[in-house]
Automatic annotation (TrEMBL):
Lineage: Eukaryota, Viridiplantae, Streptophyta, Embryophyta, Tracheophyta
Domain Gcp-like: 3-66
PANTHER family: TRNA N6-ADENOSINE THREONYLCARBAMOYLTRANSFERASE (PTHR11735)
GO cellular component, one term: cytoplasm
Originating species: Lupinus albus (White lupine)
Name this protein carries in UniProt: Putative N(6)-L-threonylcarbamoyladenine synthase
Signal sequence coordinates: none
Length: 68
């Protein structure tokens, strides 16, 4: 996509998706990840925390955490 949009032969791409960020570039014949941050999204964090506390998912984990 970076090549098509910019017309560059070897673009550096910043990929951002939810809580994941990657710096990607073409090097030595293939695409490589030169840096990345992989964090847990807030929703996933609340879901996991509610499971640890054995709270119900009904109506939602976040709501049940607030009530507890």
């Amino acid at each position: 996509m970076g090549r098509i949009v910019t017309g560059a032969d070897d673009p550096v791409v910043l990929y951002v998706s939810d809580s994941n960020i990657q710096v990607i570039a073409y090097s030595e014949g293939r695409y490589r990840i030169f840096g990345e941050i992989i964090d847990i999204a807030v929703g996933n964090c609340l879901d996991r925390f509610a499971r640890v506390l054995t709270l119900s998912n009904d109506p939602s984990p976040g709501y049940n955490i607030e009530q507890a």
